[in-house]
Write a structure and sequence with these properties.
Blueprint: E1 11-12, E2 22-28, E3 31-36, E4 41-45, H1 51-63, H2 67-75, E5 81-82
Helix pairs in contact: 1-2
């Protein structure tokens, strides 16, 4: 994997509502990393909270809306690791 960064590139979260706690995200094969307004960053993957949630969160991140609500309602502190 020469030349590949171990850290995926962050994208600014669209935040269509203007009130999201999510500010940025990065996706990769089977995971999504989220960074929040409070400065915290977390990785979500197949181990926690599972591939179905990661897929849903990835779709919402790309759409730019509903991600923080989804995390609060379905995932909470069920993350794989802190970043």
């Amino acid at each position: 994997m020469a030349g590949r960064s171990p850290h995926p590139r962050r994208s600014r979260y669209g935040d269509r509502s203007g009130a999201s706690g999510v500010v940025a995200y990065a996706t990769g094969d089977g995971f999504i990393d989220l960074w929040f307004r409070d400065g915290g960053g977390y990785r979500y993957d197949a181990t926690a909270p599972g591939p179905e949630h990661v897929a849903a969160m990835t779709r919402l991140a790309a759409a730019g809306e509903g991600l923080a609500t989804y995390v609060n309602q379905h995932v909470r502190a069920n993350y794989a690791r802190k970043l």
